[in-house]
Amino acid sequence: MGGRIVLRLDRMMAERGRSLNWLADRVGITNVNLSKIKNNRVSAIRFSTLAAICDALDCVPGDILDYEDDDGDAEDAG
């Protein structure tokens, strides 16, 4: 039992044609920290950061958050 939340920020950035540098500048965080978020190397994300990312990419949290169950099956979180 138990799954995990997976960030699909890379997918949304590609869909929007936006670079890591561009997004980091808009969100106001370092490239290193944004890269960690993009590559799912974080265990938590502040709601304010998530909101800033969504504002910059013109999306909603459900567009970049997925839930993976223990079998590795992804379900849309939105």
Query: What percent strand?
Result: 5-15%
First-last Cα distance = 21 Å
Order of helices and strands: EHHHHHEE
Name the shape in a single word: globular
Classified in CATH, the superfamily is lambda repressor-like DNA-binding domains
Number of helices: 5
Q: What is the percent of helical residues?
A: 40-55%
CATH class: Mainly Alpha
CA-based gyration radius: 12 Å
> What structural category arises from helix and sheet content?
alpha+beta
Q: Numbering strands along the chain, what is their spatial order in the largest sheet?
A: 1-2-3
- Total domain units: 1
Poorly predicted runs are: none
Overall residue-averaged pLDDT value:
91
The CATH level-2 architecture is identified as: Orthogonal Bundle
Question: From the structure provided, what is the oligomeric state, counting identical versus distinct chains?
Answer: single chain
CATH topology: 434 Repressor (Amino-terminal Domain)
Q: How many beta-strand segments?
A: 3
Strand count, sense and barrel status of the largest sheet are: 3 strands, antiparallel
Organism: Bifidobacterium samirii
Pfam families: HTH_26
Domain HTH cro/C1-type: 9-64
Protein name: XRE family transcriptional regulator
